[in-house]
Every structure is written in C-alpha cells, then in structure tokens.
Amino acid sequence: MSTVSIEQLAERLEQVRLTLPGTVKLIAVTKQVPVEAIQAAYQLGLRDFGESRIQEAVVKQEQLQHLQDITWHLIGHLQTNKAAKALDQFQWIHSLDSLKLAQRLDQLAASLPIKPKLCLQVKIVPDPNKYGWTVPELLAALPELSQCQHLDIVGLMTIPPYGLPDAETLAIFQQARQLAEQIRQQSSLPIQELSMGMSNDYQLAVQAGATMVRLGSTLFGKRT
What is the mean pLDDT of the chain? Predict the structure, then answer.
C-alpha cells in the first residue's frame, strides 16, 4: 500500500517536477500501490504509470478502464511465454533483454494495429542481480534486432548496481548515453530514449541525459 496521503503525494510530485527538465518524462512506478493512489496521481496530472508484474497490472487496469489516456509501461522482467499478454496490456516495454524475446515480440506484434514501443535493457557493468544484455552482447545482436520490423525499438533502459558511490552511478548513466549514440551510428535503430533513474538516483540520471525516469517511493512512500 502507499503510505502517503493525497496531500503528501501532491507535495512530493510538485517537488519532483521542480527538479525535472521538460524533456524528461516522469513514469510513476505503481508496483504494490493501490488503485486509489494511482487515481490520485492521475488527478494530479500524471499519465504514465509503470508496473513490474503483468498480473498485478491487469487487475489495476481493469479498475481504471475509464481513464483512457493512461500510458502503461512494463518495467519488470518479461518472460517469453508472457509476451502476448504484455503486448495486450502495455504500450511500452522497457525490459527487452534478449534476442529470443525480441523475436517473439516481433512475431506477435505483426498482427497489431500499431507498433509497441520498446527499450533494450542493458547492463553497463556486470551485475548478477539484474537481467539485461551486456554491452558486447547487445552490440552483437544489433543486426538481428534491426530486422524486427513490427517493433519500435526506441530506447535503452539501465539500472546501476545498488550501493555504488554517486560518481560511479553517474558514470554508468553517461556510458548508457554514449552507447545509445554508438547504436544509432552502427544500426538503423532510432535509439532516442534513455529510461534510467529511479527514486535513489534519478537526479544523476537526468544530469547524464535521461529522457524517462521511473519513480516509486519518492512519490508514494515506502511500500508496506
């Protein structure tokens, strides 16, 4: 459950907006956040919401069908066998982390009226606790990814290892931005979006060029 009142949410949101350039999209991460808090955030002007688990998202989306201009972002790991459901429920998938998953999504998206938007999840530095391509793996996969004609692969998503000093975290975000430039030069993928930065490090991500930040506890308080 969210631990903040609507008044506190409004105050927190205002503080966050003061720190974000107009070029940065704020995605409210609503994992374990009740529908009432999502409705409150909507009333305060938020339209982009991120969920980690498809099952939890489906329940909320059914209750919020009347809010038709919400954009839903899948930010958690996606298993290949849940790819079809993810395409049904989300306009954005930030966690495209393997060629197998990309090819499955591409196959499924052939029948969709619009291309889903995707970010490639990359591990800039080794991290056994995270999913994602290593940089060499991702660069090697670019020819095959470029052939996924039914997907709109538009960004990179990265999550630094927890507990790093700020300088190291900033360096990882800067390397992600440089990687996006490298991919644009080496492939036909229009990598313009950088989905990076969460509650504990989003200001560093913005400094490094993030275009989307994913904030949960900063807005909704600690999850209980």
Answer: 96
